[in-house]
Amino acid sequence: MTAHLSGDTYPRDNRTWQILHAAQTGGYAVGAYNCYNDDGIIAVIRAAERQRSPAIIQVFPWALHFQGPEFISYAIARAHAATVPVAVHLDHCIEHADVELALKIPDLDSLMVDASTSDPEANMQYCAEIARRAKENGMTVEAEMGRINGGEDGLKTVDMEVLYTHPDFAREFVEKTGVQFLAPSFGNVHGPYPEGGAEKYWQLDRLEAIGQALGPATPLVLHGTHPVSDELFRKAMDRGVAKINLNRNVRDDYTDFVGQQYSRHELTVLKEKAVEVADGLVKLGLPYGGYLDGLTMYSPQYQSGDTKIVGLVYTVKFVPISDTNAPKPNGNYIDSIPKAAVVFISQPAPHINAVYGGLMSMRARFLDAAGVVFAKGVATTAGGSVCRPSQTDVRVQLNSDAYEAWIEPGDYIVADLDGVVCVPANLAEKVLEVIEPIVKADEKCAAGIKEGRTVQDVFKEYRGR
Questions:
Q1: Assigned CATH topology for domain 15-281
Q2: What is the DSSP letter of 462?
Q3: Does residue 393 have an active-site annotation?
Q4: CATH fold of the domain at 308-423
């Protein structure tokens, strides 16, 4: 359920408000990235966590209608579970129906009311009404004052007239509407800039005057950022911009990559690489790479049936990169996987960086490995900056706080949709003998249950208890 904030704490308890006011106070800006699918959402969160930076995930009404409110709920769940502040914002709500739907989404942090195509007085009245209702749901509101040239994805393109924001009216607008964030028009445009670029069309003096009129209590939002230089971004931040919207900057290179690579890789590998490319395009201004803390690989789709991996274990022991005394392998461990083996990768505590990715999967598949099991949570980018492989086919430990478990060379790994089991080598033959009557008894139990008998009844008859 949406947290309803009291007058004493609103909007200070709102996630978008916290992120942008911290940016305003700190003299920096936070990227707000328009996401169209789960790749974009994951990429933003990964980059934010790696850089220990806040971020904002934005979704257009187009995505809301195409993928449904469940997609927004997914974005909110992922964002709010991040280890750094990440908010979810519904961008450019032009249609009244979009605003109504947004106000009903549980835990949505903020939305943008775009009534900039209306006359100024009607825009002000409408924004005031939405801000009042948003407050009841704990949401904050961004509004556009003036008219920003051009059109966004899935949105109507306004006419080419540019109606600039007047500094004298900006403060009155914010005070009368109660919106928390303002997107001013000062020559910025949605979509590509005409010849001369943003440097030619931006009126930085106007932006500065707007920022001074509003003061630090109202962070400014920058729309129309494709393309904009880093230098111009810095000038905007110096003039009160705390939120920088990024859409085509990230989207175009992502879609180009997918278009080029879709026929070259399996979907699982493609999804991984596409996320990394989008990740690398996130404009945080710092080098990329590193690891994602706490990611566990899993299939997001429902699975059933006899999915299973079985094989002799091939253990791989990783050690901290600082451990210069530990042995070093001859070559890459992935090249020595025995046919039909199950790779068991053990990382040194407390590291939970990644050690396995798409290239490793390709090589393991070529060598006919049965599968791979991780002794700990793992992501999909290289972990060489903090740990390295040391030995293979050695005794390794399962990283578990619940109990102590060791995996020995010669053990068998059996894994299916119910879990993973390690069968010690000295018990392999015996367990086969024990399993056969258990399987037969369970088949009889299943048949009895299908006929309507109770579990207690069939267990007593076929399992002897």
A1: TIM Barrel (3.20.20)
A2: I
A3: no
A4: Glucose Oxidase; domain 1 (3.50.30)
